[in-house]
Amino acid sequence: SVNTDLKLKCVSWQLSENQKDHESEGLSSKHLVVRRGRPFKITLFFKDEPFSPLMDSLVFSAQLGELYVQFPLTFSRHVSAFKWGGQILSENSWSQSLRVLIFTPPNAPLGLYNLQLHIKSQAQQHSYALGNLILLFNPWCSTDEVHLSHADQREEYVKNDSGILFMGTPDNLLPRTWEFGQYEEGILETCLKILDMSPQHSKNSQKDNLCRSNAVYLSRVVCAMVNDRGVLKGNWSGDFSRGVSPSQWTGSADILKCWERSQCRPVLYGQCWVFAAVMCTVMRALGIPSRVVTNFNSAHDTNANLIIEEFYSETGEKLQLSKESIWNYHVWLECWMSRPDIGSEFSGWQVLDPTPQEKSGGIFCCGPCPVKAIREKRVDLFYDVPFVYAEVNASVYTAIVKNNQVVHQSLDANRVGSLVCTKGVNSYLAQDLTAYYKNPHKTPRRNSSLHGKTEIIFVQLPVAGQSISFSVTVVNNCGTSRRLKEHINAQMKEYSHNLLETFWEASNMIKLGPYEGKCATFI
Ligand SMILES: *[C@@H]1O[C@H](CO)[C@@H](O)[C@H](O)[C@H]1NC(C)=O
Ligand SMILES: *[C@@H]1O[C@H](CO)[C@@H](O)[C@H](O)[C@H]1NC(C)=O
Ligand SMILES: *[C@@H]1O[C@H](CO)[C@@H](O)[C@H](O)[C@H]1NC(C)=O
Ligand SMILES: *[C@@H]1O[C@H](CO)[C@@H](O)[C@H](O)[C@H]1NC(C)=O
Questions:
Q1: Are residues 65 and 165 in the same domain?
Q2: Does residue 299 sit in the same domain as residue 389?
Q3: What is the DSSP string of 262-324?
Q4: Domain range for residue 124?
């Protein structure tokens, strides 16, 4: 059989073996999905005659958009971990096949690659399109920048497709289950489409493809694409008649499918937990470890002075004198990655906040902001450290105003960021992350002592259409009788809004003898 050319009959992608080995089972029914930095196996079957090492040379090429890499298939062991490579594992002359190992670098750009085989034998050359494969980030690989060393964390933050989002108040967490849905049909392909629809890709697709090797870059692209110009439109008006109310969504897959079906028009509507949960799906699908995090009493500091100002009337009614607000809770995402751009000490969990609030570099995007930089108040570091720092650690300045004059003022450093939490690993309970964001300066809930003439005691009660009861105890600490006036004022607060007008109030005169205490109960 001299003088004939080697021809390819077919290729076996060995889907189930590779996907099991790459922790990528269920992510796509159309394509082989593998993680970078770990070799995968394919088998090449030839026509008419077997492969002859002396006569035939085999070269692969992998193509991602305009990016193109070529590498030969050889018998030698692959040694250069940061290069693409092909190694022959075994030959079978009876079936005229070759078992082949293909190596990808742990810093290769993520995406849908086109794999080709070029056969050069004697005077002839044939090229064959083998098909497409999807290359993802690899938290299992120690040289990948998203490497996560604990197996149980990889199960939770990369592979788990359901989770819990926390709402309510710090003392009364309201858990809400969420289906991330990264294994639903077509979701991974939709996630890749989100990248292709980004302004960065439209502007320069070659540069964008090249940058997709980097988790910092990729997470910024996804963060900006999840909100208004991309997947989901935010609306806090309370009128959701033109779309779906944010609280009706129970998972990300419906939203992503809806976006895909509508020719990539933003889906109506999202609020913070929806934005964060959808971004969590995209990041987990792409292989970047992610978790949804709730910050209770999240400050929105519009003038960046790290102080939220609140003004009250003498009877305790909050006055609308300040545009700054404290959300009952705010939900964002943490993604796990190294930070070669700012220093390896800031590698680890990074805040990414896809809710459109403030522009960062001209687009609605926030992060990646290292959690460690927040704790160390490194407001000089990229990205958006001052904004996230204020969300968890602004102080609340409270002033009581009478006839346009401040009659009492106080500063509360504990209210904002009172709890930061996420779903625990392999658990349905909340894990407290507060100490990663702030110094543990929590003082126990103190009894308010009446030094001045007037003082506000702020109590937050959960909603949910139930009746509320509470009691207030007043103790006279001095040896003389005292008379005081007690005002109770109740105002409604939706999670992202300022207080609405007073819906209930009461007042009492209290007379206390020396060292006497009195308790009043309200139902
Ligand atoms: C929210 O929806 C309402 C009702 O459809 C609409 O009037 C309002 O402009 C929307 N707000 C934003 C910010 O899109
Ligand atoms: C996801 O997390 C839940 C709760 O911890 C657990 O019961 C479930 O088995 C996990 N699912 C996967 C696919 O790991
Ligand atoms: C947060 O605020 C408190 C009180 O103002 C302060 O002690 C602390 O150093 C601040 N920073 C962090 C990261 O906790
Ligand atoms: C607050 O007052 C209550 C009731 O008088 C008392 O039992 C408690 O010890 C006080 N707590 C503090 C921190 O002073």
A1: no
A2: yes
A3: TTSPPEEEE-HHHHHHHHHHHHHHHT--EEEEEEEEEEE-TTSSSEEEEEE-TTSPEES--S-
A4: 8-136
Kindly state whether residues 300 and 275 are assigned to the same domain.
yes
Residue listed under structure tokens 């086109």: 114
User: Do 245 and 331 belong to one domain?
Assistant: yes
Which residue has the least CA distance to atom 3 on ligand 4?
Answer: 447
CA of 438 to the centre of ligand 3 (A): 6
52 and 160 housed in the same domain: no
Asked if residue 29 and residue 130 are part of one domain, the reply reads yes
Q: Is 413 in the pocket of ligand 3 (CB under 6 A)?
A: yes
Asked about 272 being catalytic, the answer comes back as yes
Asked about 330 being catalytic, the answer comes back as: yes
Alpha-carbon distance 221 to 208, whole Å? Answer: 10
Domains in the chain, number: 3
* Shortest-distance atom of ligand 1 to CA 241: 5
Which of 85, 101, 136 terminates a domain? The answer is 136
Q: What is the CATH classification number for the domain harbouring 256?
A: 3.90.260.10
Residue type, 78: H
Q: What phi and psi, each to the nearest 5 degrees, are found at residue 273?
A: -70, -30
Q: Is residue 448 part of a domain?
A: no
Q: Which of 147, 201, 300, 330 is catalytic?
A: 330
Q: What distance in angstroms lies between residue 152's CA and the mean position of ligand 1's atoms?
A: 42
CB 415 near ligand 3, within 6 Å: no
C-alpha gyration radius of the chain: 30
The one catalytic residue among 280, 353, 365, 384 = 353
Q: Is 236 in the pocket of ligand 2 (CB under 6 A)?
A: no
Coil, strand, or helix at residue 150?
coil
Report the first-to-last Cα separation within the chain, whole angstroms: 96
Residues 155 and 254 in one domain: yes
118 is catalytic: no
Read off the DSSP letter of residue 393. H
500 lines ligand 4 (CB under 6 A): no
Same domain, 96 and 44: yes
In a domain, 318, yes or no: yes
Tell me if 238 CB under 6 Å of ligand 1: no
Give residue 219 CA to ligand 3 midpoint distance, Å.
28
Ligand 1 centroid, distance to 232 Cα (angstroms): 13
Asked if residue 449 belongs to a domain, the reply is: no
- Per-residue tokens: 254: 């419906």
Going residue by residue through the chain (523 aa), what tens digit of pLDDT does each one get?
Answer: 455 688 999 999 999 999 999 999 999 999 999 999 999 999 999 998 888 888 899 999 999 999 999 999 999 887 788 999 999 999 998 999 999 999 999 999 999 999 999 999 877 899 999 999 999 999 999 999 999 999 999 999 999 999 999 998 888 899 999 999 999 999 999 999 999 999 999 999 999 999 999 999 999 999 999 987 899 999 988 899 999 999 999 999 999 999 999 999 999 999 999 999 999 999 999 999 999 999 999 988 766 678 888 888 888 788 877 777 788 899 999 999 999 999 999 999 999 999 987 666 667 788 899 999 999 999 899 998 988 998 999 888 888 888 888 888 888 888 899 999 999 999 999 999 999 999 866 555 555 555 555 666 666 666 656 677 777 788 887 888 888 888 888 877 776 666 677 777 888 888 888 888 888 777 7
